[in-house]
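re the bet — no i am not wrong, look at it urself. input seq straight from the record:
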Amino acid sequence: MCTTDRGFLTKKHELSLTVRMYSIKAPTMHFLVTPRRRLGVALTAKEVRDATPIKGDVQMNESGNTNFGRATVEAFIMKTGAGPDILPRLLDAKVTGLGTTGLNITGVEEVDGAFYFQSWWCRFG
């Protein structure tokens, strides 16, 4: 790249760029998560209301899934140590409802090798 008045830089005018890394603390999405189904069967409104919610940092991202043989959007509760997930991950997850007090995430979960429909009621906590 070698001209000066046409927008390119000559060797004489090369710029030295310094890239600086900044540590940014990303916000966490802490919710009170209540599953709305048990092995694919919808819980009653009373069962959902009476269930003890799980507090956690809800994350959603796209990643490869070996069971599906393709990429899928996963929703999960971020864990801070080793061990199994607190709740089975929701695969093919999508937000199906959103309001001022929370949201609903729907997908399928894998339990003991079988796949079941599941929804999480997520309230700010």
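see?? The first helix runs from residue 45 to 50. told u. also The two ends are 55 Å apart (CA to CA). so pay up
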